[in-house]
Automatic annotation (TrEMBL):
CDD domains listed in its UniProt record: AlkD_like
Protein's name according to its UniProt entry: DNA alkylation repair enzyme
Coiled-coil positions: none
Pfam families: DNA_alkylation (PF08713)
Organism name: Pseudoflavonifractor capillosus ATCC 29799
Length: 230
């Protein structure tokens, strides 16, 4: 299967103004690797390709050259309905993810039913040490396990993630800010006992007080917990 055909389809959807905009948002990506395809157009293309031999050949053709190809790959992969095949595809793909935007568009359909083996898989990704694999694991823990499937130990998993990488630390803060909105009583002790490092602690509070899901009283309590330099 000629991979140039998919590249041609992507370039036919190119928006140069959007390409310039994206390049500013993603300092980890070489601008020359950005085609500039808007997400609605990319989702439409993924829907057209889903289930075709062309799509399967494309998914097997890693690494891709362009950022937009990686985004298309992620959309096709996340459209799979089978859990095992989705995880297998992610194991191959995640090491090639090199930016927050591609990472954050990944929302596997197969995870929505909360397969019993998924928490263990998320824990393995959290322990991987790879920036965007860890970020993805945190995002899945936040997306699928802060509501009816929540367990307090998942907060420990997130708190135990240690990294100097900005995109990991920001996701830890995002996770705990969301946990405060959904599981306030369980999440609050991680701030009162300073279980998070200082930057992440304060970023969690910043994001939480910006949330409409946090009550005014809770926001006042959180502001009082800001960690000031001694």
């Amino acid at each position: 299967m000629d991979m140039d055909a998919i590249q041609e389809k992507l370039f036919a959807l190119q928006d140069l103004n959007y390409r310039q905009f994206q390049a500013k948002l993603m300092p980890t990506v070489d601008p020359e690797q950005i085609i500039g395809v808007r997400m609605p157009a990319l989702r439409k293309l993924a829907k057209e390709l889903k289930g075709t031999a062309e799509a399967e050949a494309f998914l097997a053709a890693l690494p891709h050259r362009y950022y937009d190809e990686n985004n298309l790959h992620g959309l096709l992969l996340c459209a799979r309905s089978g859990y095992e095949e989705t995880v297998a595809g992610l194991e191959i793909f995640l090491p090639h993810v090199d930016n927050w935007a591609t990472c954050d568009l990944l929302s596997p359909r197969a995870f929505r039913s909360h397969p019993p083996q998924l928490p263990g898989q998320l824990r393995r990704w959290l322990d991987s040490g790879d920036t965007y694999t860890v970020r993805f694991g945190l995002e899945m823990l936040m997306s699928f396990y802060l509501d009816e499937c929540f367990r307090p130990e998942y907060l420990d998993w997130a708190a135990e993630v240690k990294s100097e990488e900005y995109y990991v630390r920001m996701m830890v803060a995002w996770y705990f800010a969301t946990a405060l909105a959904k599981q306030y009583d369980a999440a609050l002790p991680y701030l009162t006992s300073r279980r998070l490092e200082q930057w992440t602690h304060n970023k969690t509070i910043q994001k939480a007080v910006e949330s409409y899901r946090i009550t005014p009283e809770q926001k006042d309590a959180l502001r009082a917990l800001r960690w000031k330099n001694s």
